[in-house]
């Protein structure tokens, strides 16, 4: 609790916020801030077992796979968007400032994200969590460099999907305007070409009571989806190169939907008999 109390003291928060106003703050300066605020996380010799990062472009389904793996491995699935939402809905010390940033349509700075993430990891460690799966983070090389100093990442899984399939999948997304559940009406049957295998993905159709209430997100148009991908690739390439140079990057081409991809992913991660091993131990 001492660590938390220290974390939440108002002076350190206003300090972080002052720093976050400057976009020219170097990664080294941020790292030294984090080290002074979160001393436990400058120690790379952590006892955690799985310290993984999941990368992948919007729409690839990384949240789904990260969440399934987190259930399998018994480690938390941490998406920074969720951390921001949780802080916003709590009466936490950052919630007021965060609300202001979000209401003004501004991007939440790396400094705030790292503050929330370090806090989350410290709480997890004190509860005996044996690792984590970070979802969609780091997004930029600067974030990757800071994360590298804050904690040790042992594996980075980069999920990839044929771009034509990805676009079709994004265009098939629908949300029920009543219950808010997400569905996908795209029935994908991509032909094999240029040495790429064919691929089929079944739609995720809504139950009858949702079917007449489906809406499409305004930003799920072909033009917006393609632009989103372009921006993603531009930012993620240096992140991928960074982890590749450390020998931590595992590229994984999704062979289809969840039923085809999940067993293949477990195989690639050497976890195909993990459930069996774990239950044998238990
Ligand atoms: Zn519904």
Automatic annotation (TrEMBL):
List keywords of the entry alphabetically.
Kinase, Nucleotide-binding, Transferase
Q: Which SUPFAM superfamilies match?
A: P-loop containing nucleoside triphosphate hydrolases (SSF52540)
Enzyme class, UniProt record, top EC level: transferase
Keyword Cytoplasm attached: no
Does the record's keyword annotation contain Kinase?
Answer: yes
Q: Name one GO molecular function term.
A: ATP binding
Residues of the signal sequence?
none
InterPro entries to which the protein is assigned, alphabetical: Adenyl_kin_sub, Adenylat/UMP-CMP_kin, Adenylat_kinase_CS, P-loop_NTPase
Question: Which superkingdom?
Answer: Eukaryota
Q: Which reaction equations make up its catalytic activity?
A: AMP + ATP = 2 ADP
Q: Of which family is this protein a member?
A: Belongs to the adenylate kinase family.
PANTHER family associated with the record:
NUCLEOTIDE KINASE
On subunit structure and binding partners, the annotation says: Monomer.
Recorded hits in HAMAP family, A to Z, give:
Adenylate_kinase_Adk (MF_00235)
**What NCBIfam families would the database entry show?**
adk
Full protein name: adenylate kinase
Q: Which lineage ranks, top first, belong to the organism behind this chain?
A: Eukaryota, Viridiplantae, Streptophyta, Embryophyta, Tracheophyta
The record's gene field reads ADK
């Amino acid at each position: 609790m001492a660590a938390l109390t220290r974390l939440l003291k108002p002076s350190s928060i206003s300090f972080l916020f002052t720093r976050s106003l400057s976009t020219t703050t170097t990664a080294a300066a941020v790292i030294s801030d984090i080290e002074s605020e979160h001393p436990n996380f400058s120690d790379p010799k952590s006892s955690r077992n799985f310290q993984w990062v999941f990368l992948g472009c919007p729409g690839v389904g990384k949240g789904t796979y990260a969440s399934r793996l987190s259930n399998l491995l018994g480690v938390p699935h941490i998406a920074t968007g969720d951390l921001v939402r949780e802080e916003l809905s709590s009466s936490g010390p950052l919630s007021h400032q965060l609300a202001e940033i979000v209401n003004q349509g501004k991007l939440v700075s790396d400094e705030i994200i790292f503050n929330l993430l370090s806090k989350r990891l410290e709480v997890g460690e004190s509860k005996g969590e044996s690792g984590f799966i970070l979802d969609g983070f780091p997004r930029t090389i600067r974030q990757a460099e800071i994360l590298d100093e804050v904690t040790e990442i042992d594996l980075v899984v980069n999920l990839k999907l044929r771009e034509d399939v990805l676009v079709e999948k994004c265009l098939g997304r629908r949300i029920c305007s009543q219950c808010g559940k997400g569905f996908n009406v795209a029935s994908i049957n991509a032909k094999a070409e240029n040495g790429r295998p064919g691929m089929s993905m079944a739609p995720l159709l809504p139950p009858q009571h949702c079917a007449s209430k489906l809406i499409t997100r305004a930003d799920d148009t072909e033009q917006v989806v393609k632009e989103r991908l372009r921006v993603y690739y531009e930012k993620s390439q240096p992140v991928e190169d960074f982890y590749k140079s450390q020998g931590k990057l595992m590229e994984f081409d999704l062979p289809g939907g969840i039923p085809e991809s999940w067993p293949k992913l477990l195989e690639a991660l050497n976890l195909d008999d993990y459930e069996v091993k774990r239950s044998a131990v238990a």
